[in-house]
Design goal:
By secondary structure, the chain is of the alpha/beta class. The chain contains nine helices and five strands, in the order H-E-H-H-E-H-H-E-E-E-H-H-H-H. The chain has helices at residues 7-16, 30-35, 37-44, 54-61, 66-75, 115-128, 135-152, 159-163, 166-180, and strands spanning 25-27, 49-53, 80-84, 90-94, 97-101. The N and C termini lie far apart (41 Å).
Length: 185
């Protein structure tokens, strides 16, 4: 996971790897799009997954429609794109497949700082436990990341995450499945 650093630094990290991992993900932000767009484009050719928010996806591509923006990003190099929508969930794009993960409605949000990084950490943590990277595993990873991020916002900093138990995380993941499943008539 290439954290939100200069695209030049991110690229140099990838180029130093003697063995390519099964997945290289990266985060970026509008600041790098403003001052280092060409370098960002070069770095995007080296990664498998880009994780950005909706505003960043629109800025990077000039497209308002997120599905179109994701296609344009994938044309730059990444095989997959996750577009985070904050309290409105996240979208996963791969080829012509799209998965939408809702955000869990919370009664109180104390501090959203770090939720995006927590999402990425949960996503990558789940993926590291899998033998292969299928679209179904990616969907479950998005839910795992979303569940962890929902805990992150409940208290200041990392306080809530330090208190977290495996049982509480499993229960939260079940909540995500419950609110997003329905029967077709």
């Amino acid at each position: 996971m290439l954290g939100n650093l200069s695209p030049d630094v991110q690229r140099k990290v990838v180029e130093q790897m003697e063995v390519r991992p099964k997945l290289i993900a990266m985060d970026t932000m509008n600041f790098w799009m403003d001052i280092a767009l060409e370098e960002l484009h070069r770095t995007l050719t080296l990664v498998d997954l880009l994780i950005v928010n909706d505003e960043e996806a629109r800025q990077l591509t000039g497209e308002y429609a997120l599905k179109t923006a994701a296609k344009r990003i994938m044309a730059l190099g990444p095989k997959m794109v996750i577009i985070k929508k904050g309290e409105h969930g996240a979208l996963l794009f791969h080829e012509d497949q799209v998965f939408y993960a809702p955000a869990l409605p919370l009664e109180e949000v104390f501090d959203p700082t770090g939720a995006g990084d927590t999402f990425a950490g949960g996503l990558m943590g789940y993926l590291s436990s899998q033998d292969e990277l299928t679209f179904d595993h990616m969907k479950k990873a998005v839910i795992a990341g979303s569940a962890l991020a929902s805990f992150c916002v409940e208290k200041f900093g990392t306080q809530r995450l330090k208190e977290l138990t495996k049982e509480a995380l499993d229960a939260r993941i079940k909540e995500f499945y419950t609110i997003s499943q329905f029967d077709l008539i």
